[in-house]
Amino acid sequence: MQLSVKMIKISRKEAKAQGLKHYFTGIQCINGHTTFRFTANSTCGECLLATHKNYLKTEHGKAVQKAYDRGEKAKQAHRVRKKDPRVKKMNRRDGAKRRAAKLERTPSWVDHEAISRIYLFCPNGYEVDHIIPLQGKLVSGLHVPDNLQYLTCTENRIKYNAFEIE
Ligand SMILES: [Zn+2]
Question: What is the pLDDT of residue 1?
Answer without folding.
Answer: 42
